[in-house]
Amino acid sequence: MSDLSTVVNAVAQAATAAEPAATAVAQAASFSPLGAGIAFGIAAGGAGVGIGLTAAAALSGMARQPEQGSNLKGTMILGIAFIEGLALIAMVFALVVVFLK
């Protein structure tokens, strides 16, 4: 039995050594969903921080100059929309990486 297992192991090693490039490509493709998830998580976290800082700055400005509240509110909403748009673009790129291998 040990002779048979030695032959099987030798054949398996020869088969995997014959195609190292194909194995590396398959292994890299198997990690693409993980990379996409990490990238989108970082992008979503960055968007969350950006939205929080934008809202904090707008509220601080409204507290200092209440008469400019409506102007600051409009600017804040526009800034938040741009930040959220960047997060959505990152999500689309992550989905492209996952589904279009």
How many angstroms does the end-to-end distance come to? 42 Å
The CATH topology annotation of the largest domain reads as F1FO ATP Synthase
Overall, the morphology is rod-shaped
**What is the radius of gyration?**
26 Å
Biggest sheet layout: none
Determine the structural class based on helices, strands and strand pairing: mainly alpha
Question: What is the fourth-level CATH superfamily of the largest domain?
Answer: F1F0 ATP synthase subunit C
Q: Give the domain tally.
A: 2
**Percentage of β-strand residues:** under 5%
User: What is the CATH first-level class name of the largest domain?
Assistant: Mainly Alpha
**What is the correct CATH architecture of the largest domain?**
Up-down Bundle
Query: What is the average per-residue confidence, as pLDDT, rounded to a whole number?
Result: 85
What level of helicity do the residues show? over 70%
Would you kindly provide a written description of the structure presented here, covering whatever features stand out?
This protein is mostly helical. The chain is built from four helices and no strands. The relative contact order is 0.12.
